[in-house]
Amino acid sequence: MATNITAGYTPATANDTTFNYTKQAQEEGYNQLEAIVISVILIAIIAGTIIGNILVCVAVCLVRKLRRPCNYLLVSLAVSDLCVAVLVMPMAMIYEIKGSWIFGEIVCNLWVSCDVLSCTASILNLCMISVDRYYAITKPLEYGVKRTPKRMIVWVIVVWCFAACISLPPLLILGNEHEEKQEDGSKRTDVCLVSQDFAYQLYATMCSFYIPLAVMMVVYYKIFRAARRIVNEEKRAQSHLESHCYMEISVKNGGGPPENKISSQTSSPATNPARINHRSSTTSTNTMAVTLRVQG
């Protein structure tokens, strides 16, 4: 029997077996060099994300000028990104390199829920930050009074509760996908995917991406228009103030309208440098007096 097996094990069979094994390895993961390069890049991204977001949290906590209600949403955003870097990205890196899920169904369910929770919270924090900036620019006095620490904490809690409402249904009700059909009709049982239920996919994508994206686009467009309007109003006010100051200085110096002043200067036979310096210093003094009077 051993002789028959040995006789049947021809070089062609060995080559076919090696080819099938190599093809299967390529389908399941990367080769060694690719795995090393991808691992280094992803580890650098993970480390940078962790360090950067920790520094943001530490800066807001330690620097007194940064401990303001407007920065509570920034801390919430940093925490959500930190959760992505610590809880989601390392397992995603291993899953990507190996090409298969090796941690079991329970860890898969928790990992997918953490992924959806953290990413949704990050997007919603960005959306709330845009709304906060809009009211701070368009209604600075009124919104400055309403932006209390308690109100901003409530906003942060609402963001995380809404993100939990999107991430928990697959974990508690629907379940995630642990099987995947191949092209040849077979099934893989080493995958970890979020629930592919159509209703949940529609609900999750709309609430966690498209609606916040639309809100941010509209809000930032309004912020751009408000900022441009404020700049134009400041330019008009500055030009009006400069013209008013010029007319007042001309009247005080007895020069009359600009045309008469120019003609009187032209008709003078000679010009004394000391007199010019005295006149320019007097004009500067009058300008400073008018400016102080306007600011007061």
From TrEMBL:
Primary residence: membrane
SUPFAM superfamilies: Family A G protein-coupled receptor-like
Subcellular location: Cell membrane
The keyword Cell membrane is assigned to this record: yes
Domain G-protein coupled receptors family 1 profile as annotated: residue spans: 52-296
Transmembrane residue ranges: 36-63, 70-95, 101-131, 152-173, 198-221
Keywords: Cell membrane, Disulfide bond, G-protein coupled receptor, Membrane, Receptor, Transducer, Transmembrane, Transmembrane helix
UniProt keyword annotation of Transport present: no
Membrane topology classification: Multi-pass membrane protein
One GO term of the biological process aspect: positive regulation of MAPK cascade
Family stated for the protein in its record: Belongs to the G-protein coupled receptor 1 family.
Protein name, per record: G-protein coupled receptors family 1 profile domain-containing protein
CDD domains recorded: 7tmA_5-HT7
Signal peptide region: none
Spans annotated as Disordered: 255-296
Amino acid composition bias (Polar residues), ranges on this chain: 261-271, 279-289
Organism: Acanthoscelides obtectus
Molecular function in Gene Ontology: G protein-coupled serotonin receptor activity
